[in-house]
Design a protein that fits this description.
Layout: E1 6-13, H1 19-29, H2 47-52, E2 59-65, E3 68-74, H3 82-89, E4 94-100, H4 107-118, E5 122-128, H5 137-148, E6 156-157, H6 166-176, E7 189-198, E8 202-211, E9 213-215, E10 219-222, E11 227-230, E12 233-237, E13 241-244, E14 246-248, E15 252-256, E16 270-273, E17 292-298, H7 304-317, E18 322-328, E19 332-339, H8 342-356, E20 360-362, E21 369-373, E22 378-381, E23 393-408, H9 412-421, E24 425-433, E25 436-444, H10 445-459, E26 465-476, E27 478-485, E28 488-489, E29 495-498, H11 499-516, E30 524-530, E31 533-540, H12 556-576, H13 583-589
Parallel strand pairs: 1-3, 1-4, 4-5, 5-6
Antiparallel strand pairs: 2-3, 7-8, 7-16, 8-15, 9-14, 10-11, 10-16, 12-13, 12-15, 17-19, 17-20, 18-19, 21-22, 21-23, 23-25, 23-26, 24-25, 27-28, 27-29, 27-30, 30-31
Helix pairs in contact: 7-8, 11-13
Amino acid sequence: MDLNNIRNIAIIAHIDHGKSTLADRLLELCGAVDPRDMREQYLDSMELERERGITIKLQSVRLEHKGCVINLIDTPGHVDFGYEVSRSLAACEGVILVVDAAQGIEAQTLANCYLALESDLEIVAVLNKIDLPAAEPELYAEEIEQVLGIAAEDILLISAKTGEGVPALLDAIVERIPAPVGEVDAPLQALIFDSHYDQYRGVVSSIRVMEGVLESGAKMRFMQANSTHEAEEVGVRLPEPTAIKSLGAGEVGYLIAGIKDVGEARSGETVTTFSHGADVALDGYREPKPMVFSGLYPIDGDEFSSLRDALEKLRLNDSSFSYEPETSGALGFGFRCGFLGLLHMEIVRERLEREFGLSLIATAPSVAYRITRTDGEVVTIDNPSEVPAPTEVDFIEEPYLTASILTPSDYTGTIMDLCQTKRGELSKMEYISPERLELVYRLPLAEVVMDFFDQLKSRSQGYASMDYDSDGYSRADLVKVDILLHGEPVDAFSSIVHRDFAVDYGRKMSTKLRELIPRQQFDVPIQAAISGRIIARETVKAYRKDVTAKLYGGDVTRKNKLLKKQKEGKKRMKSIGRVDVPQEAFISALRLED
């Protein structure tokens, strides 16, 4: 295919600014989907995406317009899935930057726009939702010009819902986005930018050919994995997968090579031909750094190996989370997993349960702390149960991030109050228009992962948006709070918190567990402790059997004698008794929403 007739683009935007709806209109206008089969958010194929109304995975599709082939990638908007966006951009020469005409620039608009600029991509800016009564396209076109430097007259006005202005956008894609560069005669270099596991066909990889030709039936070499496979099928998504003979330089499609070992076709892998192949691999992707850590344990211990296989297959489709085996005295064998954020953690857990039929418990999310021991050794831990004894710790450092918050100026006071209660330090405050401003705070990651985002939305009535980047480590006065049941520490409930909030955390956790743990035959003390010092206590009262029921009258000493005997029996039972904590108590106590 002539390279001048190819356009590779991705749609990028903040959450809910209309990316998937715009993709629907483009599919319709190019006649890619039969009108009878058309449904909303057509490219969001995952059940979870349709339920939540968000895009979780990038999706690619091939369209045709006025003799041009347009390879379109629809990307997620949430900050937790920013890694999906950066992977998509490596397969493109340009982007459609979608901005809501009723809300203007949001935090992820800026973040995604800067990603596109870093990748040196052509940007076609679009103001969507002009059909809304609250839309102010002229105002926000000026804002885009002022903040992003894109000329207001070059910004297209569209409504993805009604289709208004979308044909002009297709023309602009053909005119403004540069054609890909590459030599068809050069040795093959193709980049895998996404993969998923099909139980019948093995690994299915989304691929962008940079140089050369990828032919069906040819023997392939996967350069990073150093393995060879035959290309069983090469094809394009129209949007249904359709096999073709070959993909030339500049084209985007998929490759099936009968790969069963999921480690051999990870995102960022370079594919070349076995004979006369390329000598140098493509750059690939930087490994993303997990921000939030949590333990995932099967409720049924026999499902441990099934969980391991499921994590391996899911990691092929989502390489931004990591996992390693760990054990817990309370929960048995499981995995310590690292995620890019809380929503990412929730989605991965839900996908494991739905797609692989597992029942899981997730421990309370924590972050990676850096501990300097008294002997000078520095260790990084992401599990509170790994904290050394207090006598061995010199000081603890916690991870920080730089949060960029865009908000209407009416909510400035409440948002600054929120950031300060979360131990934030104000770095910058700048008006991007008379009604809207950007606040930049340096915040401890541990304070952000729990409920910061929810509180930000409720304090700004949903108008504020946030984007963040990691910002190194800083020293802090942190302590490990242990929860003891009957004097025994339960590692699943341990947590590292700031000393100022330790007593509050201890009280909350012990009160919550008192409600969740069923009564035993003896009193069960629930205690929160720091370095052996008790800071909070609750007691689950014992059952009391009426041992005096068979007495009819008589002297009171007979009654006291029986009660005393019962008391001694309970005392003996208490010394050997083990507290029975049901799985539901773990699930409820560790539930994120609470």
